Amino acid sequence: MTKRIKSARNDGPMKLAGHIIGGFDMFYEEKSVEVFNPATGKVIGKTSSLRGDELNFIEVNARKAQKHWHHEVSEQEKETVFRTIIKKIENNRGNLVRTMVIESGKLWRWADAEVQETIDTLWHYHGEISRNHTHDGFVRCQLPDKNAYSVRVPYGLIYGITPWNFPLAIPFWKICGALAGDNAVVIKAAEQAPFIAYYAVKLITEAIRETITDGRQTKLLGLVQLVQGMGETSGKLLLNNLNYDKVAFTGGAETGKIIAETAGARLKSCHLELGGHAAMVVLDDFDIDLAVAEAINANLGDSGQRCVSARVVFVQENKYAEFLAKYLERAKTRKVGNPMDFETEMGPLISREQLERVGAQVHNTSQFNLKLGGYCLEFVHNDPYQTNGYYFEPTVFASLPYGTTAMDEEIFGPVIVINPLPGKSREEAFWNGVELVNQSKYGLSNALLTNDRHLASRAPWHFKTGLLYIGRGTTGAELNKYFGGVKASGWGKEGKGLEEWTQVVQVYDDYHGKARMAQAGTDEKTKKMISESKSSLEN
Ligand code: NAD
Questions:
Q1: Atom of ligand 1 nearest to the CA of 252
Q2: Residue pLDDT, tens place only, 341-354
Q3: Checking DSSP bridges between strand 269-273 and strand 246-250, what pairing results, if any?
Q4: Does the C-beta of 274 come closer than 6 Å to ligand 1?
Q5: How far is the centre of ligand 1, averaged over its atoms, from the C-alpha of 227 (Å)?
Q6: What single string gives the DSSP state of each residue in 296-345?
Q7: What is the pLDDT of residue 4?
Q8: Which residue in 161, 228, 197 sits closest to 490, CA to CA?
Q9: Which ligand 1 atom is the nearest neighbour of the CA of 412?
Q10: Residue 376 CB less than 6 A away from ligand 1
Q11: What is the pLDDT of residues 98-151, one digit of tens each?
Q12: Per-position b or e across 282-292, b if 16+ CB within 10 A of its CB
């Protein structure tokens, strides 16, 4: 199914996306890898993997900075750092968007939305800095002259591993959570989109330098460090050897297994935000045109490269034919092309590897059920600028059961399955929908499209999912809301508060002044019980 893919080169001066370690830029030419513009296939610069001898430097800087940030920097100063970063991002908004479009192939509007999400993230965690983080306020003790309370304290050093599909927002979810929780953080950027992370961490470093003065800024040089390079080299090197306290991972389920196994073997905490196979259930009372529009956005937005992208729609049988026909009509006319062009509705996939992978997964799925697309697009609108870009056609399968690739695997591209949902009545269709959705090994994001209030209210108790959309497609996360999956989609929740970024200390404050224990009785009572009791174990 995959057509021939050529590669193109760029002869211009090389741009370098290096590591930022202890406030220094580092780049190892001998470990460099090329970075491509997915819209053109041209080399836009280079990034480099890490050297093992930097590990100690990373850790020493991070530990020093965390100690200082936690104990010596006031809440007001931390808030000022966050506001300064926001100002810098706002001032550089256009440049950040442009960089993201060039290296990730995102449409301008989605890249801009991602910058906004990054700003929202900073504001959310700005609020968390001064929030009262007492875990549970007043707790009565079993004994008098004793207080009990719990506090949330930082982990220390967080290792955040991030994917390319939200190359700015996801690093910021981790950076902001970690900093608001008083941790230091080392971010591993995705090798496919290293420039946006590099520019953003530069802005953070500048903001810290400008806000925390009096020479104290030098102690904070390791607060946010950035490591670039391949997962197999840089990612693994840190995972296996850096003395972090927690790893916060976002990426694919296969990599997630490696992260969990390694962190487990090292007895390190971890949370995982993994892939998904989002399903939409459409019942017959819902407006079909709106359902189609939601499904198009949920599947083709970011070229199907969101963890919450819709992979399957189950449409109640009496509306199935109408839905399928209207979806095909809209998907066919989708304008695919240069993400820099404002009129473009869908851009390229991230890389040649991803293009080939999607092609192979589509090929492995039954061709009998293919209704649209199925191929890489070699020439887009005959525009020579884009002839080597990584474009894949909007692709639709119909009536596919579980047990096929497109139903069982996350195909990270513009590929969707549209299936009829059996059910003569709406209620019957609802329960069939619940059963079908829950068959998936994933459980990140699912949706129910109905106007039936009773069924909608029941839904959260029955779908096995981390996120549930009611009345719209599976897309869009908001800050100050929990984000994360269940089953093979991961453990833990990001996007809200400090739960993942801090841990609980239970404090007992005993001012009684005499030795005692909560559950032990008085000496007299104990003596009496010994003399009066007997057990069948004694003769
Ligand atoms: P990936 O798992 O291939 O890579 C993610 C990151 O892990 C990259 O930085 C990579 O270099 C690093 N990595 C790879 N192997 C490693 C190893 N052995 N040790 C340490 N680090 C390693 O994922 P991807 O292709 O970059 O991203 C797409 C995937 O991410 C999709 O499955 C998508 O669903 C998922 N995702 C999930 C969420 C979520 O919040 N649940 C959000 C975005 C993306």
A1: 32
A2: 999 999 999 999 99
A3: parallel
A4: yes
A5: 15
A6: HHHHHGGGG-STT-EEEEEEEHHHHHHHHHHHHHHHHT--B--TTSTT-S
A7: 33
A8: 161
A9: 31
A10: no
A11: 999 999 999 999 999 999 999 999 999 999 998 876 666 667 788 999 988 888
A12: bbbebebeebb
Query: Which among 429, 410, 418, 338 is positioned nearest to 373, based on CA atoms?
Result: 418
Identify the sign of the CA torsion 127, 129, 132, 133: positive
Three-state secondary structure call for residue 192: coil
What length does the chain have? Answer: 539
244-245-246 Cα angle (round to 5)? 95
231 in contact with ligand 1, CB cutoff 6 A: yes
Residue from 55, 121, 165 to probe ligand 1 pocket by mutation (most atoms less than 8 Å from CB): 165
The DSSP output letter for 182 is: T
Q: Which two tokens stand for residue 123?
A: 């504001």
Question: Alpha-carbon distance 383 to 330, whole Å?
Answer: 23
Closest atom, ligand 1, to C-alpha of 238 = 20
Using a 6 Å cutoff on CB, does residue 316 contact ligand 1? no
| Beta-bridge mates of residue 160 | 187, 248
- The sign of the CA dihedral 527, 528, 533, 538 is positive
State the first-to-last Cα distance of the chain, in angstroms, to the nearest integer: 82
Residues of the chain falling short of pLDDT 70: 1-14, 133-138, 378-387
> Which of the 8 DSSP states describes residue 41?
T
Provide the annotated active-site residues. 273, 307
Residue of 19, 196, 234, 250 with the most ligand 1 atoms within 8 Å of its CB, for mutation: 250
Per the CB < 8 A criterion, the answer to whether 423 and 429 are in contact is: yes
Whether ligand 1 lies within 6 angstroms of the CB of 450 is answered as no
Ligand 1 in reach of 251 Cβ (< 6 A) = yes
Instruction: Determine the residue type at 114.
Output: E
Atom of ligand 1 nearest to the CA of 229: 11
Strand order in the sheet with 224-227: 24-26, 19-21, 224-227, 184-188, 157-161, 246-250, 269-273, 490-491
Pairing status of strand 246-250 against strand 310-316: unpaired
**The pTM of the whole model exceeds 0.90:** yes
What are the residues whose beta carbons fall under 8 Å from the beta carbon of 474, sequence distance 6 or more?
Answer: 278, 279, 280, 298, 308, 309, 310, 445, 446, 447, 467
Residue nearest to atom 11 of ligand 1 (CA): 231
Nearest alpha carbon, ligand 1 atom 13: 231
Q: Looking at ligand 1, which residue's alpha carbon is closest to its atom 22?
A: 231
Q: Looking at residue 538, what is its pLDDT?
A: 87
Q: What is the pLDDT of residue 136?
A: 65
pLDDT at 477: 82
The span from the CA of 356 to the CA of 515, in Å, is 70
Plot region of 57 (φ>0 → left; ψ -120 to 50 → alpha; else → beta): alpha
> Assign residue 209 a region: left if phi > 0, alpha if psi is -120 to 50, beta otherwise?
alpha
pLDDT at residue 137 in the model? 66
